[in-house]
Structure formats: structure tokens, C-alpha cells
Amino acid sequence: MDEQRLLAERAEKDQYFRQSDHSPLTPEQQDRFTGLRYYAPNPALELVVTIERADEGQPVAIETTTGDVQQFHRFGRFNFSVNGQEATLTIYEAQYGYFLPFTDANRGGDTYGAGRYLEPEELADGRFYVDFNIAYNPYCAYNEGWSCPITPYENRLSVAIEAGEMTPQGPWVEMG
């Protein structure tokens, strides 16, 4: 995704959070909302990857932030490199499509501790488009009224993914 389009989409998301009746923020949070935080666009983390398919979409129960369990299927894994360090992630399949939850070395600081999400896009040739620049926080990062899948252990990276949305900060967050 080109940088101008990425920045425009980020501005649209801020407007949605601030003004929409469907925002994940409470009305009090919307009144004090100052915007989301993002890493600068990082073209090195916009990837097209080859997937090593899992055996028959193995079922996986993933716990949520409220203690519930959601069912996914393990679709496959891919390897990639970040600043010279090798990493591996698993893509899951859900009713709505592909799901890629992950945490990185900055979790609990610059990035949300329970993980960030992506919806990888399957390409015509069977590879996947994975752009970490559009990684986003689940709604539970903004207030406790939401239930979100917690990143499985196999997708907890020891490398930093310095792309996408960062941990929300500001007085509007504490109100959630």
C-alpha cells in the first residue's frame, strides 16, 4: 500500500473513532479522543509470503480477554525476516476469512500486550499479502467492554514489528 493511502486510511480511522456511533470508544472516550498512535510507514514490512499449509486446518481454541473461547482453524505458517532476524507466524482461518494475531518484542510497551491483528489476503497464486503497516489493535485495547482473542503462544514473536498501530495512550484510554 502506498504511503499516502496508508496515511489517509489512518486519518479516516481516527475520524471514525472520534465521531461514529459504532466506534469502539465510549461516548466519554470519544469526547477526549486525541488520535491513535502509529509507527511510521515501513515498506520492509509489506510482504508477499508463501504459506506452508497445516494438515486439514487443525482446530484451535483461542481464549479471549474475557475468558471465553473462540474456535479457529490453523491454516498455515510462513517465515519472514525482520531486520535480519528470522520469524515464523501462523495464519488462522475463521468464519469471516483469514486471521493473523501476533505479539512482538515491544508488547506491553509500544505495542498492545494481548496482541495486534491482521487479515492477510490470499493472492491468486496461493501466496498471501501480509502488510504489518496495517496491523491494528483489537477493540479491547481501548476499553474493557470488548472481548478479543488473545494471541496464541505460537504467534508471540521475540523480534520487534515496528509497523502499524501502537499502544493507545492518553486520558481518553483510562476512561474505558
Molecular structure report:
- With 176 residues, the chain is α+β, with helices and mostly antiparallel strands.
- The protein has one domain.
- It contains three helices and eight strands, in the order H-H-E-E-E-E-E-E-E-E-H.
- The strands form two sheets. It has a five-stranded antiparallel sheet, with no helix packed on it. A three-stranded antiparallel sheet has the order 1-8-7, with no helix packed on it.
- A hairpin with a 2-residue loop joins strand 4 and strand 5.
- The longest helix has 17 residues.
- It is globular.
Short summary of the structure?
It contains 3 helices and 8 strands, in the order H-H-E-E-E-E-E-E-E-E-H.
Helical run tally: 3
- First-to-last CA distance: 32 Å
Major pleated sheet:
5 strands, antiparallel
Helix/strand order, N-terminal first: HHEEEEEEEEH
Content-based structural category: alpha+beta
Radius of gyration: 16 Å
Q: Residue share in helices? A: 10-25%
- Major sheet: order of its strands? 2-3-4-5-6
Shape designation:
globular
Q: How many beta-strand segments? A: 8
Number of domains: 1
What low-confidence regions span 5 or more consecutive residues with pLDDT below 50?
A: none
Mean pLDDT: 93
Percentage of residues in strands? 25-35%
